Amino acid sequence: xxxxxxxxxxxxxxxxxxxxxxxxxxxxxxxxxxxxxxxxxxxxxxxxxxxxxxxxxxxxxxxxxxxxxxxxxxxxxxxxxxxxxxxxxxxxxxxxxxxxxxxxxxxxxxxxxxxxxxxxxxxxxxxxxxxxxxxxxxxxxxxxxxxxxxxxxxxxxxxxxxxxxxxxxxxxxxxxxxxxxxxxxxxxxxxxxxxxxxxxxxxxxxxxxxxxxxxxxxxxxxxxxxxxxxxxxxxx
Length: 236
Hints:
By secondary structure, the chain is mainly alpha-helical. It has ten helices and five strands.
């Protein structure tokens, strides 16, 4: 599995490559007068047009992969690109509360480590497992594995189908009449489980090496608490 962490060294300091990458942007009328949202829309349209030109053509992994890496830099996020067999950690995540050079290793393992483990696991979830090492959609896993995977995936679905959706209001945690849709969120649930498992295993190894120091796993519970409206959750 390949990885993209923050930026590509080969492109960041290569002026010719940067000029070539941004050549179409220089042709946008009134570039400096456009708002942020208008620029994002322009870039998305340009990217879509270029991808449509390559539709049905052999995959040009290097250039399209790198151009994909330059997208979404305004987001604090991490991604898994199954068609490139690559995890993508955006630079916005490499700061507190996910990462810090002065923070204990155990904290970083629990925070950014869980995120990395989450994205790696996506490569083997109910969607990612359908792509091979080259990013091509192919059933490369045997029938026995597929049957065992389906059995375990059914357990995840049933578990989350009975998990209540909580609502945070005025500092209080309230119970709603909604439950999770285990089938809809299956890939994320598998990735969450895998990320936490990998993080805990690394922390256990750290504990064995540094038995005199406590291992902090607090980031596992506090680093990501998304919030949605009840109407949005009900529609999902």
